[in-house]
Amino acid sequence: MDIIKEKFTLEDNLIGLFYKAQNSKEYQAKLLKTRLTFPLIWTALVIVLFIVNDTISWFGIVLLILSILWFFFYPIRYKRLHIKHYRKYLENKKKELGDSYTEEDIFYLNQTDFKIYSDGVELSIPISRIEKLVELNTHLILFIKAGGLIAFNKTSDNYDKFDDYFKSINIPIEQDLNWSM
With b meaning 16 or more CB within 10 Å and e meaning fewer, what string describes 152-166? Predict the structure, then answer.
């Protein structure tokens, strides 16, 4: 059994939450819907204006330009809104927990379960309850079947121990090394 002390930052948790959200069907569907809805409405309005006036007005040209800009730049805005939302959520959660919030946890790693000890609370996760491990360019994200996740920073001194452990317990490992926040 390996015993490892690991520090976590709000940024580590933010990366884990945002990665999970960005790869969800709901996120993708809402992004696509909003990305297409406004440009289609504005383009339809330009077509109606063209039919009524038999010429494209400056207002129609402005709407077409806005439609194109919206289509290409809205995903960037949508991403920023979600990052801001998750950052605020994590900061509120930290305030809510107050003194019971710790940035350093102790991990007990063995072949049957994965234990986390944090400020008097122990959480045991059986290996069978681990869904998968995703390797990003900066983090390892451990997904738990109950819906939770833990994000480990690759710059940590303990990265090699965690990486070896996760590979030894035969959980599905995915790589998404080109993902960035």
Answer: bbeebebeebbbebb
